[in-house]
Amino acid sequence: SQQGEEDPQALSIQEGENATMNCSYKTSINNLQWYRQNSGRGLVHLILIRSNEREKHSGRLRVTLDTSKKSSSLLITASRAADTASYFCATDAWGGGSNYKLTFGKGTLLTVNP
Amino acid sequence: DTGVSQDPRHKITKRGQNVTFRCDPISEHNRLYWYRQTLGQGPEFLTYFQNEAQLEKSRLLSDRFSAERPKGSFSTLEIQRTEQGDSAMYLCASSSPGQGVGYTFGSGTRLTVV
Using CB atoms, which residue from B6, B95, B106 is nearest to A100? Predict the structure, then answer.
């Protein structure tokens, strides 16, 4: 089963614009992570935010986490054509026995037009 | 160490045949995960190893699927009597010990059952 739900499913923007993707989840979490996947390839870890953090930055990426609403957002600023990819949120659920297993959403397909 | 390696990259097999995939994780990572991803979906958890011990298996992993990680190094995923529904990308990931760490994914093995 997939815990995270990304929104929107697809997003098309022009180079230089900002892209915002949202993720909602259902259970309490230890942390939430964002990954990028280029077509037909493996996933690349972008950023991790812990349940006691509200915001985190890494380069052109900004992630927020609202545990009361069980939601997160990923902002990519000044987008580039090379940012074109699918973006997935993944949650590490709280509680014994999770074995640090990540549960992924269905992803947002971002297209950045040059 | 250049990351997580998966072999083969692509596999086409006839229905009913057995297939085996290999994953070589990052050497200092003690955790290893197998995921399956179908088109337009996020990765779905299959199984998890900590060192050589298989600690969790998804209900998705029918008795036709078996995974091993001898000596806690590389891992193999075998599918017996393949079915067309097994067609998917099989992703391997590894992570280092500790909480709140991201996964490093391999490029995946794309299986097509004809």
Answer: B95
